[in-house]
Amino acid sequence: MKMTYYGQSCVLFDFDGTRVLLDPFVTYNPLASAIKVADIKADYIFLSHGHQDHVADMLTIQQQSQATVATIVETAGWVRKQGVPDDKVIEFNLGGTLQLPFGKVKMVYAMHTNSTPDGNYGGFPVGYVFFIGDKTIYFAGDTALTMEMKLLARFNLDYALLPIGGHYTMDAEDAVLAADFINCKEIIGIHYDSFPPITIDKAETKVLFQAAGLNLQLPAIAETISL
């Protein structure tokens, strides 16, 4: 099982040959200028919400890969309006669980806002828990620290992808608390450094997590890590 980081909150999981992409935003990320969107292939695309920095490259990658796009009902409506066929869209809602060929995916709570790039209401922002073989991975999406995270501790998470940039989401200090709430020691940072309001001091952030007994990974853009 592998994960490639494309910057911001865009990650590509390789689940034993099934490629699962989350929140595709590459073209307009100044830190990802070396990445060619044409080279990104996915079997599934999951969207945490409809903000531009999470969906900008959805259609391009969907069309070149014929990927299935999964997201909350209202954001799924926007996906269809972009021209993605009905049979390539999975709409579901908070608390819902998908049984897919590569594993199980549960949609969970996130505290944020959600509109689509056309300015319409996008439904609730969400996170996802992936159950892949004996591994469980939490993708938090854009979220503030919330007590609902404590409900995730029951899943015995192996990895958690948490936003750490602050300003629009929780910051590193809140992410340390979130790691405690979800009872997960292996953290992968997302949603940081792409723009000035969310720039972090990486060394200082790693010390903060280490002091809390947590292992924080901050992969370089285009870096692939094993999970």
TrEMBL record:
Gene3D superfamilies: Ribonuclease Z/Hydroxyacylglutathione hydrolase-like. It comes from the Bacteria. It holds the Pfam family Lactamase_B_2. Keywords: Hydrolase. InterPro entries: Metallo-B-lactamas, RibonucZ/Hydroxyglut_hydro, UPF0173_UPF0282_UlaG_hydrolase. SUPFAM superfamilies: Metallo-hydrolase/oxidoreductase. Residues 7-191 form the Metallo-beta-lactamase domain. The keyword Hydrolase applies. GO terms for molecular function: hydrolase activity. This is Metal-dependent hydrolase. It comes from Sphingobacterium humi.
